[in-house]
Amino acid sequence: MKGLKQRSCAREGLGEKLKAGKVKRKTLVAREDLVDRLSEVAKRRGRSLYDTVNEVFEAAVRAEKMGLDLRGVVEERGVLKAARDAGFILGLESLWYDLADLAYEKARKKALESWFEAGVWLAKRYVTGAVGDAFEAFKRDLETFMWSVPELSIERMGDNVLVRVISPRFTESFTFLFAAFLEGALKTFGYKNASREVFRGRIFLEAVKVGVDAQK
After folding, report:
1. SS3 at position 152
2. Based on C-alpha coordinates, what's the Rg of the chain?
3. Which helix (H) or strand (E) holds 150?
């Protein structure tokens, strides 16, 4: 590649003994910056670059045999880690809806307040975290975490934010609770509701930056 030096990623470890039998080696050429970074990874793990490179190749081959793309596998694992770090847990979708229905039926006001506060809490993690654009980071992660929702979009246009959520699997209770969660998050980012349309499986919210005329 232009502007990038190349080096052999098979040089390190050539003097090591192979663990099992005689295996032919082949010299490969790779970008120098990537080889250097992989070499640093190998050192941190107490491994040789040779072993680390072969481990990467083996993982790529295994992913291909499973019909998966290695880059996609890494990205999906990253999503799970980010969700875990943000306080999410995995659970059966149907069970989650059932629990939401029970809470909404027995203590509607308290349930709505709890979901609203959960939105506030999650948004604060981004506002106070070391991220460039807290709102965009929240938007990106939420759209990723809610992978079971057919349509979820959060668009920021100037001083306005438009939220659109459509999911035929949402119960009426869960729809209203999730809307409260979104409103809590938007409030934390400095927005207030300008319009709201919520009914089973559909959420449409328009929010405007606090202090800005919604009709402007």
Report:
1. strand
2. 24
3. none
Asked if 10 and 25 touch (Cβ cutoff 8 Å), the reply is: yes
Q: How many residues does the chain have?
A: 216
What whole-number distance in Å separates Cα of residue 60 and Cα of residue 65?
9
Q: Give how far Cα 193 sits from Cα of 10, 18, 172, 185, 197, Å.
A: 59, 65, 20, 12, 11
Give CA–CA dist 81/100, Å, rounded: 25
Provide the β-strand partners of residue 208.
Answer: 160, 192
Exposure string (b/e) for 135-173, b if CB count within 10 Å is 16 or more? bebbbebbeebbeebeebebebeebbbebebebeebbeb
Rounded Cα distance between 47 and 22, Å, is 20
Kindly report, residue by residue over 39-54, the tens digit of the pLDDT. Answer: 888 888 888 888 888 8
Rounded to an integer, the average pLDDT of 194-203 is 94
All domains in the chain, ordered by first residue = 6-68 (no CATH), 90-209 (3.30.1380)
